[in-house]
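During the first year of the project, the team set up a workflow for recording each protein of interest as an amino acid sequence followed immediately by a discrete structure-token representation. This format lets reviewers and collaborators read both layers of information side by side without switching files. As required by the reporting guidelines, we include two representative entries from the current panel. The first entry is reproduced here exactly as it appears in our internal archive.
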Amino acid sequence: MKIGIPKEIKNNENRVGATPAGVKELVGHGHTVYVQATAGEGSGFADEEYRKAGAEILPTIEDVYATAEMIIKVKEPIEPEYKLIRKDQVLFTYFHFASERALLDAMLESGAVCIAYETVTDRDHRLPLLIPMSEVAGRMSIQEGARFLEKPQGGRGVLLGGVPGVNPAKVLVLGAGVVGRNAALMAAGLGADVTITDVNLNTLRHCAETMPRNVKTLYSSRHNIEQQLPDTDLVIGSVLVPGAKAPHLVTRDMVSLMRPGSVMVDVAIDQGGCFETSHPTTHSEPTFEVDGVIQYAVANIPGAVPYTSTLALTNATLPYALRIADMGWRKACEKDPGLAEGVNVVDGKITYKAVADAFDLEYTPLAL
């Protein structure tokens, strides 16, 4: 199969769809890999490393899309790429369709096969291609939250861990999934007073048994969240409903309960955000204010640490990419129902129910 790896063009997205080691594996399976010139530079991988791995370097993004039967990316295509995508071309990347109608419409019109990293499942019903970036984003959410709590960044001037004689910051983590648990561990490691919430009592029990002693658990309800907000310095929103829009756990009126200079980090922004006031931001302009509260809603948080992120992502995606390339997407999905869960759009039809439901559009089961 002819596989293309274009350079990411989303704002400050420095990750790349595959490392040179990943390319070497694909080439070793008999596939031809085309990498756009400088695609890996942001992650620390030079064109020469890709050449040594067996890739052909193409000068432009147009060349890559025109040549490849399958595109391996990191982030969803953005508008300049829409016209480059053609019928029956396989796109293997993050899509997050439920939060972006224009993207969905463009992919439906293209007739392409869109396999979304974020809805692929494994035998244990986990999300193996979302987990590594969720781990990065969860840890980064605390790093970024701590930064914007600093006074020069507009924050209250609070140190997460405090010092002897001064209380640590209070951190509220909404959702105890992969993002939430990683955020809680990072905040706890810095010495913060952490509360993690969820609606699954078994998950909360697990957190209570395994988290450090400065992490408390709390059932997630509007009442409980409202009770926490006035004293909270940093809120991490990390709720995920696979493939669907995130629920708004913090409404517009609830934001005003927080003190000026407090910080909210919405890691769920890829799926529409779990704060009602959220809108996507970029690494170049990461924050905005609502009632004096700083809100951070960067839609590609792991793009800030591209070397780590690209290695982690390729480790997870490469086995699936090999299966798709070796067998073709149809046979690969027949063999692996979890991979089939990743197929969101085929030939102008929506094949993932949560995406169709998000916009009240027709759903067509993949089997049809």
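The second entry, processed by the same pipeline in the following quarter, appears below.
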Amino acid sequence: MVTPLDLIRKKRAEAVSRIIGKGYLAAKRVYVGMATCEIAAGSKEVMEVFKQAIAKGIVKDVYLSQKGCAGRCNLEPTVEVIETGKMPVRYGRIDADKARQIIEKHLKGGQVIEEWVIG
């Protein structure tokens, strides 16, 4: 007979598996602003650069997702990089070329690009 506790354990294991499988616990997480105004500012192209880098294996153990409006229209498109054990870094006015540089310098090289950081 299956007890309620058995069901809870099973559901918890399934949830943890989904979280891990989707990459939510990756060592590096990248969020690209994809609100309507950010899309108009070019964030689709920025998102595509990150998608391609992950698909081609240029960067590993990176979770990529979109985020909504941050209320910083004058700084769009925005990209946030979160790494385990480090403070989040928010970049502003990012285009496809800058996204490639974030991949090379920050995600691969560990170097924050200070001149693009926003508060």
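For the second entry, the following points were noted during internal review. The first helix runs from residue 4 to 22. The CA atoms of residues 12 and 18 lie 10 Å apart. Both points are flagged for discussion at the upcoming steering committee meeting.
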